[in-house]
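[job 0412] stage=complex_fold ligand=S-adenosylmethionine status=START
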Amino acid sequence: MTLTLFPDGVENPANLAKLDDAARLLGATCSQQIDGRLIAVENTDRAREIYGRRPLRERATLAVGNERRGLSTRTLARANEILVIPTQSRTVRTLNVAAAAAVAGWYVLRGSGPQARARRPDVRRPALLIVGTDHVEVGSTLRSAAAFGFRDVLLDDRGAGWFEGTGATRREAMAAARRHKNPLRVHRATLADLERFDEVLVALESGKTVPLQQSRLARGRRQLVVVGLRADEVHGLAAADIQVASLELAPVQKPPLRLVASITLAEIARQVGRRRRGPAGTQARPPTFAAAVKLRSPEDVLFVDPSRLLSY
Ligand SMILES: C[S@@+](CC[C@H](N)C(=O)[O-])C[C@H]1O[C@@H](n2cnc3c(N)ncnc32)[C@H](O)[C@@H]1O
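[job 0412] stage=complex_fold status=DONE, emitting structure tokens
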């Protein structure tokens, strides 16, 4: 069984480089040749969900499309199947193309159970801490977080620069609010904030520990999921209850944050689930982030217009 990634009209060289990284992490190769079963990855109405699929047992090619236009009609017509990564945002319905390839490849290779159904998915969603050093990698990760339904994230900004120029960002947020957009709230954080949570789960790209799919990722806001931490940093962490989960990817030097984080976020979204409708009037409001987790000063919150994340 071999897996090929086929970038169909992907234009941005940086995205092509990240697709190469995704292929290496998945033990796949990038090619313009279609080998075996053609699986189109696209958010069209005709697509089946990536969740709940059996593991791949044959040679296959995953096609991902152009940053603006998506997959060509030719590729869609030739495909043996079309898969969509379900999202939960009205504004951000797509992931960065390399992030989408990593998520699709990870689920196609392993298979998974279906996405959970829950009366109140928002109550089950854990808090998320992104540790990032690169502006674009953090941007693509924020895009994925918004797409998968997060409204608040914590960011340990280690030089990625998201908290620079906050005046401009605040003006942008006010403009977004006037346009009735729900901003993504990015809270400045450090590893010292781990102490605020009852449970901490660190997701690592590889290593012999509990596989991510066997870890419980829907424990609500007292649980913190950390992405972007190096394996050698885990031992020094001070928190009540720290678990480590592995995505079981091929060990590579410096795996891009957007790929590891997007797979983790997709699995959180599968376990947290989507809304199962109850009898009318029974939908309680989810707890607000501030009420669940006491954060620092309001100065350390960045409001990001979700539509701005589409450029990552
Ligand atoms: C950024 S998307 C752009 C095109 C997209 N059709 C749109 O609606 O804007 C680029 C590529 O990433 C992949 N992709 C991104 N998000 C996806 C999702 N939620 N489900 C499936 N594929 C996705 C697809 O291969 C898509 O062609």
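Residues 3-110 form a domain with the Alpha/beta knot fold (CATH 3.40.1280.10).
[job 0412] exit 0
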